[in-house]
Amino acid sequence: VKCCECGCASVTFDPFLFLSLPLPNQLKRGRKVHIEEAIKAFCDEERLEAENSWGCPRCDRRVSASKRLSLWKLPLLLLVHLKRFGFEAASWRPTWKIEGEVATNEHLDLQDFVSKMSPQRAPLQYDLFAAVDHAGASPMSGHYTASCRRADGWWRFDDSRTEYLGRAGCETTEKKVIGSWNYLLLFQRRDAPREVEQVPEQSLRRPELWPHVLDGATRQHSADPD
């Protein structure tokens, strides 16, 4: 957050378990958008004014400010949630569903979305390995299915039924996996272990694995004298 009057800035770290992406207005009007457009809209600058104004510590009053979200550290396994359901203030039930397609390839490069101040410089290239799809008007109802990439290609899992969709990297297969039915997209970073069991588990005893800590940072600090 940055004050529009004195330039005072405040940086807050907010660890996340998944990216929950609002869908751009173009999608609501029926135009297909790419997932990179949705991420850009998520990170775009926002103006804080009137009742949403910011309490600037330097000006010592509420002022107009700009707010921008940046990604600091990206995980080995990334879950992307597409916010397809809209709510009206007077109702806790979703009142509409955005049906448009959020297009993506099986490969995604997120390097441009990481903060320039972040020391994370590893190639941030991801591969899609699963998608959760939803059919219906409400997240509390309807039907969920999953498409998963295995060694021999993509498979769809629908309750007790399975269907082979085709080999990975094939355009025909992509059209069966990616579409307006997607609700969750799961990506794996290319430098991640191939087996899920090899992905290190976060714990209080392993702070270097926490989302906001970069590789080696905690080990370096822990070696410093008290």
UniProtKB/TrEMBL annotation:
Cross-referenced InterPro entries = Papain-like_cys_pep_sf, Peptidase_C19_UCH, Ub_carboxyl-term_hydrolase, USP
Q: What's the superkingdom here?
A: Eukaryota
What's the EC number here?
A: 3.4.19.12
The UniProt catalytic activity note for this protein reads: Thiol-dependent hydrolysis of ester, thioester, amide, peptide and isopeptide bonds formed by the C-terminal Gly of ubiquitin (a 76-residue protein attached to proteins as an intracellular targeting signal)
Q: Which residues form the USP domain?
A: 1-190
GO function terms (MF aspect): cysteine-type deubiquitinase activity
UniProt keyword Ligase present: no
Which is a Pfam family this sequence falls into?
UCH
Q: Where is the composition biased (Basic and acidic residues)?
A: 198-209
Q: Name one GO biological process term.
A: proteolysis
- Give positions of region: Disordered: 198-226
- What keywords sit in the KW lines? Hydrolase, Protease, Thiol protease, Ubl conjugation pathway
Q: Which family does it belong to?
A: Belongs to the peptidase C19 family.
What is the official name of this protein in its record? ubiquitinyl hydrolase 1
- Which organism is this protein's natural source? Effrenium voratum
